Amino acid sequence: MRKHLIPTLTICCCLAISGCKDDSVDSTQYDPSQPVTFTGFSPKEGGLRTRLYIEGSNFGSDESKIHITIGGVSAKTIGADGKKIYCMVPPRAFDGIINVKVDGPCGETVVDYTFEEPFGYTAQTIIGTLLRKVDENGNSAFQDGSFDAGASVPSNDCMIFDPHWQEGDNRLLFTSNHNDGMRVIDLTAREVRRLFPNVGYSKMYSFTFSADGDTLLFADDHGQDNTTRANIYYALRRENFRRIRPYNYGKTAYSLVYMDDGSIFYSTWWDAKIFKMTRNDGYIPNIDENAVEAFNLNAISSVGGQHTILFKHPSNKFMYMLTDGIGAVMRADYNEETKMFGNPSVIAGNMNEKGFREGTGGSARFSKPWCGVFVLNEAYGEGIGPDKDQYDFYFTDRDNHCIWKLDPNGIATCIAGRSNENADNKVWGYVDGQPLHEARFNQPAGITYDPQGDIFYIGDIDNKAIRYMTTE
Fold first, then answer.
1. Is the pLDDT of residue 1 over 50?
2. Distance (Å, rounded) from C-alpha 296 to C-alpha 344?
């Protein structure tokens, strides 16, 4: 049955009333002498960005006068021809109630209609943008302050959530880049502040925290093959992490892991070696003249010098390694008795061949893996794979412009980015939306995961943004 709504009668000085009526009716124009009708909508269900069509008559073709909400969330009117309205379903339109308001010639509301049948909204995983501020030329700069005032973190190499977080605390996201020091993003207060600038050290690729979470440590790429300069710096929680001091003097370093037993391992360039820091009587700063080589990546393939980033597994039993010069995910197991890592192995990808291919183990291909994070998967129960592991490993691939998931069985799957390649023969760009059908990145680098909100944060370097991925 067609449902008719009698338009609200409003005296308006801007409305001219003609003494005669033209028999040729323009259906695209609102006619105040006729009722506005709504007869239905399609499709009946869907998720974010579903194209929704609302049918009826006499609501005109001026999109600015048609206001739609779905589930209480505003949906932009994209098109209208007097008989059909076109819009897209907004995010989080959970209850699905569709309301349409139409303005008259003078801005007055002539109809306010709510459909009895709700739209069946399906929650989806989406890519969005947390922070991005660029000018008309696409340039951006670091800017501290509130999100609403235009805070900006355009470059991001590494991100870690505060390991000291407790219920009731503000959610703090630490973020670093090799150009402009260390910042903390307060997701609760929605503000950004810099902890310290890039002063006193050369280049920071990554950082980590001590086992107790009270010390922040980062490796310094100072370019020297000796112990004349500090290669690890530290900052203390009791000083709000604002002052940095030398922690260890040694070969140029890119990344470090701090084991639960206090052992520290760091990566260096020459032969892609991994060293164990040798403590000298417990004094800080430490002079690492007797650093012990744990292993080097050239032991499994001739790859020369590499920027190797280390990621300790939450179990403390092994670590994964990524390097921008090798299209592989590597692993080394930790011996808790000897406090030493064993020889590395390839978990997925290939040491000497790059590309883009989903697959298991050596059949997968990556291009420029950069940063990763282990994420607990409750569906694994007591664990799966050879180690009965409960964690997936998510990592960025800069040159493939995507996010990978590697499960405990060594199965590598692209889970976000590279969407709509057939549209323009490109896999990069700046697009929010569904991870594999709409979203695009441009050189994604840093990545971390917030289990409190079930949300990933991704540093999207060439888009000068921090993006997020979450299921509504």
1. no
2. 8
Q: How far is CA 36 from the centre of its chain?
A: 44
Query: In this predicted structure, what is the pLDDT of residue 48?
Result: 81
- Residue 227: strand pairing partners: none
Q: Is the pLDDT at 75 greater than 70, yes or no?
A: yes
Q: What gap in Å lies between CA 8 and CA 65, rounded to an integer?
A: 15
Tokens found for residue 193:
């502040």
Give CA angle at 141 (139, 142), nearest 5°: 155
Average pLDDT score, the chain: 92
Distance CA 315, CA 313 (A): 5
Residue of 328, 323, 190 lying closest to 267 (CA atoms): 323
Secondary structure E strands in 77-196: 77-80, 84-88, 98-103, 109-114, 120-121, 125-132, 145-146, 158-161, 172-177, 181-186, 191-196
Name the DSSP letter for residue 391: E
CA 387 to chain centre: 28
C-alpha to C-alpha distance for 104 and 261, rounded to whole angstroms: 72
Within 2-65, strands assigned E span 3-5, 36-42, 45-46, 51-57
Tell me the torsion sign for CA atoms 43, 44, 48, 53. positive
User: Token match 């049948």: residue?
Assistant: 117
**Using CA atoms, how far apart are residues 102 and 324, in angstroms rounded to an integer?**
55
> Which CA distances in Å does 151 have to 70, 102, 159?
30, 37, 17
User: What percent of the chain is modeled with pLDDT above 90?
Assistant: 85
Helix count (H) and strand count (E) of the chain? 1, 39
- Over the range 348-370, which residues count as b (16 or more CB within 10 Å of their CB) and which as e? bbbbeebebeeeebeebbbbbbb
- Dihedral of CA atoms 196, 198, 200, 204 in degrees, nearest 10, equals 100
- List the strands of the sheet with 273-276, edge to edge: 256-258, 264-267, 273-276, 292-296
Residue 19 CB partners (closer than 8 Å, separation 6+): none
Provide the percentage of residues in the chain whose pLDDT is more than 70. 94
Give the bridge partners for 207, in sequence order: 218
The rounded distance, in Å, linking the Cα atoms of 360 and 357 is 10
Is residue 369 within 8 A of residue 395, CB to CB? The reply is: yes
- How many CB atoms lie under 10 A from the CB of residue 304? 12
Strands 84-88 vs 51-57: parallel, antiparallel or unpaired? antiparallel
Please state the pTM of the whole predicted model.
0.83
Q: How many residues in total does the chain contain?
A: 472
* Paired tokens of 416: 């976000």
Structure tokens at 445: 């680098």
Q: How far apart are CA 13 and CA 138, in angstroms?
A: 46
